[in-house]
Amino acid sequence: MKRKIFKWTIRISVVAVLLLGLLVAIVLKPSLMYANKTLLGNFTVYHDKPLDKELKLRLDNATEILKTSQFYDVNIKFDICMNDGSLYPSLLQVFLGRAFALGFTSNKVALCGTVNIKDNYVQVNDCRWNLTQLLAHEETHCFVFNKFGFWKSNPIAHQPLWKWEGYPEYVSRRASDQIDLAKNIERLNEVIRKNKDEWGISFADSTLSSREYFHYRLLIQYCLDIKKMTYENLLKDTTSEQTTTTQMMNWFTTQKIN
Ligand SMILES: [Zn+2]
Question: For residue 161, how far is its CA from the centre of ligand 1 (angstroms)?
Answer without folding.
Answer: 9
